[in-house]
Specification:
disordered N terminus; mainly alpha; disordered C terminus
Length: about 240
């Protein structure tokens, strides 16, 4: 028999679930708009290294910022649209997005922002992709549903960054173009680039491990929440 506690708890969960899904939808929309502006800017801005529209758009896809926001869109849409059916996305895919989009925001404002001078709509796209999207993603994770990440997800979350690094270095060795200065082997040398990458991957791994630890605390909290009414029922 349902108690008043159960009814109120169910109503609260329904409201919080709806608010969470709306927030995820907003996050996906923000990231999508930022990506659209970024791609439009790349397509319409002349670049002697990439004279065709296809070449400029393809080059834009090589930026970690762009790929991180694509992950954000995919994860947020899946969890917003079918949170039960796509619940597995809340594990390693969501953690991958969390690590990548956080690295995107931190590295951009710590290392790269000073060299960027966007104006007009390009500045809006830059803000959406590097600040608003990361902030929303972190917030929706902190206040939304958690408890589906496991320790093995830490290693899985680093697969994408490692692949991106490998492909970036291979591509750079062929066409001698790198998306970011800190991975430019020609300018910095392999030793400096490898050290930088090692530091960043270590930080990303620590971030992923901390996120999983925090996420699992939510699972413990949820178990305790379910145990309280059950214990009360045994008392009569």
């Amino acid at each position: 028999m349902a108690t008043t506690y159960d009814v109120v708890d169910a109503a609260n969960k329904t409201r919080s679930s709806l608010a969470w899904r709306v927030a995820l939808g907003l996050n996906a929309a923000v990231a999508a708009v930022g990506l659209t502006i970024k791609f439009a800017e790349a397509a319409t801005t002349a670049d002697p290294q990439f004279p065709t529209v296809f070449g400029r758009v393809a080059n834009e896809l090589c930026y970690f910022t762009i790929e991180s926001n694509l992950i954000v869109v995919a994860v947020c849409v899946a969890l917003c649209w079918r949170p039960q059916r796509w619940s597995w996305v809340a594990g390693a895919p969501r953690l991958t997005g969390l690590v990548c989009i956080t690295v995107t925001g931190v590295v951009y404002y710590a290392v790269l922002a000073g060299d960027q001078h966007y104006v007009g709509i390009a500045k809006v796209g830059d803000m959406l992709a590097h600040f608003v999207s990361p902030l929303l993603y972190i917030v929706t994770w902190l206040v939304g549903r958690r408890g589906l990440m496991v320790r093995s997800d830490v290693g899985r979350a680093l697969v994408f960054p490692i692949l991106w690094i490998a492909l970036t270095l291979v591509r750079g060795s062929i066409i001698h173009i790198y998306p970011y200065g800190f991975v430019d082997v020609a300018a910095n040398g392999y030793v400096a680039v490898i050290v930088t990458i090692a530091v960043m991957l270590t930080a990303a791994g620590a971030m992923a491990a901390s996120a999983v630890w925090f996420d699992q605390r939510r699972r413990v909290g949820a178990s305790l929440e379910r145990a309280v009414p059950a214990f009360e029922a045994t008392l009569g």
